[in-house]
Amino acid sequence: MYISNEGLLVILFVGLVAGWLAGKVVRGTGFGIIGDIVVGIAGALVASFLFPKLGIHIGTGLISEIVYSAIGAVILLLVVRLVRGGGRF
């Protein structure tokens, strides 16, 4: 699989925005810029695996990818918070 430089920049941008949005929604302090990118990309992976299994389709385009990834990142952050401690949302 080959990813162009532009494709890699788009993935990083979407991951950063999605991770930042998820941090704001979950009211976390965030994990820093690299952590937010990782959470956003991991959230995109979670969403791309989970949503088709549930029959959920948001749409196409950059904005829908950001929303899709942010929802996945929120789910991921909620799971991390439950596992890490406190058990509170």
UniProtKB/TrEMBL annotation:
Task: Identify the keywords attached in UniProt to this record, alphabetized.
Answer: Cell membrane, Membrane, Transmembrane, Transmembrane helix
Tell me the lineage of the source organism.
Bacteria, Pseudomonadati, Pseudomonadota, Alphaproteobacteria, Hyphomicrobiales
Q: What family does the Swiss-Prot or TrEMBL record give for this protein?
A: Belongs to the UPF0410 family.
Q: What is its main location?
A: membrane
Q: Which GO terms describe its cellular component?
A: plasma membrane
TM spans, by residue?
A: 6-23, 30-51, 66-83
How does this chain sit within the bilayer?
Multi-pass membrane protein
Which cell locations does it reside in? Answer: Cell membrane
InterPro entries in the cross-refs: Transgly_assoc
Native species:
Bradyrhizobium hipponense
Task: Output this protein's name.
Answer: GlsB/YeaQ/YmgE family stress response membrane protein
